[in-house]
Amino acid sequence: MFPSLFVILLSVSWKSSSTLAYPSEGFLHCLSLHFANSTSISKLVYTQRNSSFSSVLKSSAQNFRFTTPSTPTPLFIITPLQPSHIQAAIYCSRIHGLHVRTRSGGHDFEGLSYTTANYIIPFVVIDLVNLRSVQVDVEKATAWVESGATIGELYYGIAQKSRTLAFPAGLFYTVGVGGQFSGGGYGPLFRKYGLAADNVIDARLIDAKGRILDRKSMGDDLFWAIRGGGGGSFGIVLAWKLKLVAVPANVTVFTVRKTLEQNATKLVHRWQSIAHKFPKELLMSIFISSVKSSEADKKMTIQANFSSMFLGSIDELVPLMEERFPEFGLVRDDCLEMSWVEAILSAQGGVQLETLLERHKKTGVSQTFFKAKFDYVKQPIPEMGLEGLWPMFYEEEAKMANIFLVAYGGKMDEIPETEIPFPHRAGTIYSIIYVVDWDEKDNRNSKRFLNWIRRVYDYMTPYVSNSPREAYVNYKDLQIGSNNMFSCKGSYAQAKIWGRKYFKNNFDRLVYVKTKVDPENFFRPEQSIPPLSCF
Q: Helix, strand, coil shares of the chain as percentages rounded to 5?
C-alpha cells in the first residue's frame, strides 16, 4: 500500500478514534498492517512489557532528571530501519490519537525527545538510532548525513576522507545531528562559517501526511523553517545534505586557566569587549566554575578556563594575541597544533579518532541530573556585575555548577537574522549557558538546585538581552513557557511568549509555515510552533 494509498490514508484526521478497545492494542495492530515487513515489528518496536524497554529508553537519555520512576514513559519505542517504518508510525499515531516524540541523540535539555512534561498524554518515541549513515563527497565538498547520526559520526566520516574539509557543527560529539541542525547548531567554526543550519543545502523530510519531501518538493518556506526553527514542529527530517568547509591541515588550540588570584575577573571583563572582534578564524570561549584555591586549602575561588581554536599556526596566533589581548599573556608553550578533528577530541579528553563513534560516552555535555538556562549578551557586563555573580558559585548547590561564555561576531554578524529562523546575529557579543548538576542522592531535593539556577538567572537580568530576553531553542527551557497540551485554543498566545525569545520576529513566519504544512497540529511537543488555528 506504499506510498500512494498510504498518503491518502494519512489524510484522515489524527483525531479519529481506534476501533479497538485500547490505543496500545490498536496501535500495534495498525503497525502490523502497515509495516512494509510485519515480521520486523518485534525487533523494531518495544512495548512497556518488553524486557529491553527501559534500557532502550534510557540508552541515550543525557539528563537523568527524566529517567526517574516518576517520569512519564512512552507506550512504545519505534526504532525504524527505513522511512516506511516512520511513515507507518506517523499514520498509526494519528488514527489512534497518540503524540509523537522523535529522538536523534537524546540531548534535549528538558527530555522532550523521549518523554513529556504531562503525565496523562499517551505518546510514542520514534528513535532514529538505526538511521545514521554518513556519505561524504570530497570532490564536491558535500555530505549526506541521516538524522540518527551523532556529530562525532559525522566528523569521523569527514576525517576519514580529508584532513582539510570540516563542518561547522557542535563541539560535543555525542549530540545527534537531527536535533542540533534543527535548532541552528554552533561550534568551534561558527565565527568563520556560521551555524550548522546555515550550511545545510538540502534535506529529506517526512511530513504529517507521510510524504517524503526534499528541498524542491517541500518548498522554500518549509526548507527555511527546518533549518533553525527547532525540532518536533514540522515533521521528521530523515537526512541532511551539507556544504563542507575548508580548514587548514593544522589548527592551533590552547586552554589557559586563571583564578581570581590570577586576575580572572579583569581578564573576563576585557574578553567581553574584544573576543567578538577577533578575526573570524579565532574562537575564544570561557568555562567558569568554583575550585579549591589549593589542594591544602579548603577556601574556594573562581577559575576561568580560556579555550580557543584558531584556523592557523602558532606563529600566527601568538603575535595576534599579543596585539589584541596583551594582558592575557599567551605564550607559545600554551599552544598546540593538530588537525581540526583532533582538536575536537582533545577538548573532551579523547585521543583515538574512533572515540568519535562512541555514541554514549560522557563528554562536556552534562550526563547527570541537571538544569540549564541560556542568555545572549549585547553589552559587556561591568566588573562589579561579575564580582556580584562569583559568590553564588560558593553556595552548596553550586559545587557542580558552571557557566560557559562563547564569543559571537565574525560570520555571525554578516548573516541576516531572517536568513533562517535562528535570529541571534549582529549585536550579540557572546552567549552564556548556565548549568547546575547534582548527584542521584541529591535528586530528592532537586528544588534546591532549580531555585539556585533561577536566582542566578534573575541576578543576570540587568546585564543580558531584553525585550525579549533571548534564548536558544536547542537549549530548551520550559521555565520560559510551554503550550497547552490538551487544547489547541490559545496555544498561539502561549507559544508567542517563549517563541519570541527563541526566534524574535521570525516566530510569525514559523507560525505561517506550520499552518501550511501541519494545520491539524499533529507534531506538537510542549514547545512546538502552533498553527493559526490555535490562535
A: 40, 20, 40
Indicate the SS3 state at residue 464: coil
Q: Which fold has domain 23-127?
A: 3.30.43
Query: 360: pLDDT confidence band, cut at 50, 70 and 90?
Result: confident
**C-alpha torsion sign, points 52, 55, 60, 65:** positive
Q: Report the candidate in 459, 429, 406, 408 with the shortest Cα–Cα distance to residue 287.
A: 406
Per-residue pLDDT of 424-476, as tens digits, reads 999 999 999 999 999 988 998 999 999 999 999 999 999 999 999 999 999 99
Length of the chain: 535
Whether residue 110 is predicted with pLDDT greater than 80 in this model: the reply is yes
Q: How many helices and strands (H and E) does the chain possess?
A: 17, 18
- Grid cell at residue 252: 592551533
3-state secondary structure 267-323: HHHHHHHHHHHCCCCEEEEEEEEEEEEECCEEEEEEEEEEEEEECCCHHHHHHHHHH
| Cβ burial, residue 207 (10 Å; 0-12/13-18/19+) | buried
Cell 518485534 locates to: 42
Q: Are 46 and 56 in contact (CB under 8 A)?
A: yes
Gap between the Cα atoms of 302 and 306, Å rounded:
13
Paired sense of beta strands 297-310 and 251-259, if any: antiparallel
- Fold classification of 134-246 (topology level): 3.30.465
State pLDDT tens for residues 185-210: 999 999 999 999 999 999 999 999 99
In angstroms, the Cα distances linking 328 to 29, 274, 311 are 65, 12, 20
**Active site members:** 475
Q: Which CATH architecture has domain 251-338+365-460?
A: 3-Layer(aba) Sandwich (3.40)
Q: Which residue has the cell 514547545?
A: 527
Distances (CA, A) of 137 to 25, 134, 159, 199, 366: 45, 10, 12, 15, 33
Question: Within 10 A of 353 (CB to CB), how many other CB atoms are there?
Answer: 16
Which residues partner with 291 through β-bridges?
A: 301
Q: b/e for 32-68, b at 16 or more Cβ within 10 A?
A: eebbeeeeeeeebbbeeeeeebeebbebbbbbbbbbe
- What is the C-alpha separation between 79 and 44, in angstroms, rounded? 5
Residue entry with cell 545527534: 176
Delimiting residues of CATH 3.30.43.10 domain(s) in the chain:
23-127
**Contact, 28 vs 49, CB < 8 A?**
no
- List, by residue range, all CATH 3.30.465.10 domains of the chain: 134-246
